[in-house]
Specification:
The complex is a heterodimer of chains A (about 325) and B (about 290).
Chain A (H helix, E strand, L loop, with lengths): L1 H29 L2 H5 L6 H10 L6 H13 L13 H36 L4 H15 L2 H15 L12 E3 L2 E3 L4 H34 L2 H8 L4 H38 L5 H10 L3 H29 L1 H7 L1
Antiparallel strand pairs in A: 1-2
Helix pairs in contact in A: 1-4, 1-12, 5-6, 5-8, 5-10, 6-8, 7-8, 7-10, 8-10, 9-10, 10-11, 10-12, 11-12, 12-13
Chain B lengths: L3 H10 L2 H18 L1 H4 L21 E2 L5 E2 L10 H37 L1 H16 L2 H12 L3 H28 L2 H8 L4 H37 L11 H12 L5 H28 L6
Antiparallel strand pairs in B: 1-2
Classes of the chains: A mainly alpha (about 325), B mainly alpha (about 290).
Chain lengths: ~325, ~290
Amino acid sequence: MLGFVIQRLLQAFIVMMVISFLVFVGVYAIGNPIDVLISPDADQRIREMVIRQYGLDLPIWQQYLGFLKRLVTGDLGRSFVFNMPVLELILSRLPATLELTLAAVLGATLLGVPLGMYAGYKPDGFVSRLIMVISILGFSVPTFWVGLVLILAFAVTLGWLPAGGRGDTVTVFGVPWSFLTLDGWRHLLLPALNLALFKFAMMVRLARAGTREVMLTDTVKFARAAGESEFTILSRHVLRLIAIPLVTVFGLEFSSTLAFAVVTETIFSWPGIGKLIIDSISSLDRPVMVAYLMLVSFLFIMINFLVDIAYAALDPRMRVRRA
Amino acid sequence: MDQPLARIWAEFRENRVAVAALLVVVLIGVIALFAPLIAPQDPYDLAKLVLMDARRPPGYVGSGGYTHILGTDAQGRDLFSAILYGLRISIQIGVLAGMVALTFGAILGASAAYFGGRIEAFIMRIVDLQLSFPAILLALMLSALLGKGMMQLVAALVTAQYAYFARTAHGAASVERGKDYVEAALSTPLPARTVVFRHILPNCLPPLIVVATVQIANSIALEATLSFLGLGLPPTEPSLGMLISNGFQYMLSGRYWISIYPGIALIALIVAINLVGDQVRDQLNPRLKR
């Protein structure tokens, strides 16, 4: 197990290095690195000072080492637009994104798994077909379009819910949260629904396929012979047997939802890191772009690493095969 | 029941939803192909746009003397024409990105299966890693780094999607690699290139075609998403995503048609392609045969 962990850690490290190299090449070598570090309206004296300070007159490999060193020490530069350290800026926006993502993934799982199990239990029923139609739509219709329709229906036409923003927040440990107020929930509902639809569709499919397979096994036959009710069979035995893939997907999907939040946050003006990166790209705020790409990649690789480890802990075969 | 294609079509015809979806795909394709003949206005000719006609509701008779059946957008474009031309761009990009990704991924996956050993492990490890990254994050990263433009967009879409083809081709090619006809081909002095391209790849095509249909739909959706976020094409020749994005700001004041109609065209296209792809995949999946 230790060997497996070390191997995976090494791999995560290599991937992180490759990504840092790509971002370095993309932003520093192709673009003009001076634009990344100082705002366009700085005068000549400051420009020369920064060029020397960041070693832009050095050979390219030394510049890359310098870039890595600044990454490790957390010095990601200052945002031109917000005029504050980029790391601080991103960390201040992160809670909003986490809140939205968590609400979406949890909602999708809590709704999607029971509905998917029902659709797998009675595959030919009318309700099951309806569930599957929704799930197919959730898969093929782009997230941004669902967001638009939700706004048009619930905010513009019906006027029930607000179309954007975070609403009232309560500050806990110096971080504002929306989910602690009623107004916050009203603002959270539509974006969370929007972001959840794709995950919901996926959970329904997985749970349905798993349930259909497990219902044919001896486990279910014996449970029925023992006189257990259908509900007990589904909730005690079937759920337990289909849980492992669901848990894995839950973990992996959580990180991809972080990336998808870009779309939802833009539509609903949700002030998280997704909206931040889109705003930064359009205002060419490059330090923020670099920092976002590095941070999200890092989060992503960490989550993948943890899921791998959790999987290996649950399933010993994985350790033998991969290590 | 002798010809494989006839057999596939006979089975396909039994699913009425899939047949309807195929009809929709063909219809949209034809409409997009002949857009200049059907559209009442050339939406890219800025000289023909009249600002007085801007943001008019469906059914408005504009200064051109004809009815704007789907209304006009913020620049006074006839939306029906803009949607037809937008479909052209979306389909072009989707098909181009899908085909390039198919070619690149299939060669990579088949080569990995052919060479085996370390080369295979190396290539497939990269593919696995890339598959674990969400396509939108990769596309976002590349669009941010490469900038705007048709080629940049296609490059971003290809990078985000070739891995699916590589994995499918690798799986199919690994199976073919062990079969006798490949062994026979290998025992002749044919170069490796010929064996991969002439013998192994043609037999991997069916699953690759299924992945290609789904991936073309995904490319179109991804392109629309990127355009909606302002990372896609330059706004002079709007794709469907750009049209939707342009209309978004007017939606809150009730001018729904600028965003909604391009969106419906987009959804119809994507859902229809997916339904066709689903049916073909089910037909080719031996595990569902009872």
